[in-house]
Amino acid sequence: MLKAKDIMTRDLITVSPEMEIAHAAKILLEKRINGVPVVGGTGKMVGILCQSDLITQQKKFPIPSVFTLLDGFIPLTSMKHIEREAQKISATTVAHAMTPNPVTVTPEMSIEEVATIMVDRSFHTLPVVDEGKLVGIVGKEDILKTLMPGSKVR
Questions:
Q1: CA atoms within 13 A of residue 14's CA, in its CB half-sphere
Q2: Of 60, 131, 136, 140, which is most buried, counting CB atoms within 10 Å of its CB?
Q3: What does pTM read for this prediction?
Q4: Which CATH number fits domain 4-145: 3.10.580.10, 3.30.428.10, 3.40.50.10890, 2.60.40.10?
């Protein structure tokens, strides 16, 4: 049975939280990747930046729906959610646009478990972490390659 460690990309491309959004977007486009781990100064992974995080910047600002009850307005969207959306839309650095504390997988997870997480949670990229250290990344392409006859596992 194949595991994440058998198919993961080990030659990692990472970005820092301080990097400008435009530079991070250029990396994603030039390298033709959907997501990239965000690594802080201590070498610890602090988030993940995906194309969808960058596309959020083109989104309209969400106006919360409200309803009235006894002449009072009750928002249907939390203020915390609105603040997070505003921060992503106006982001200038990776730290503001990234998804903090991303879902990760371990090297020993089966590709079936990894695929299930990707499908159930609509993820295209999952960081592989071993004992707190980023050791690889698995993308949908890595899983698709295992379906091709004669494909070589890394």
A1: 21
A2: 136
A3: 0.73
A4: 3.10.580.10
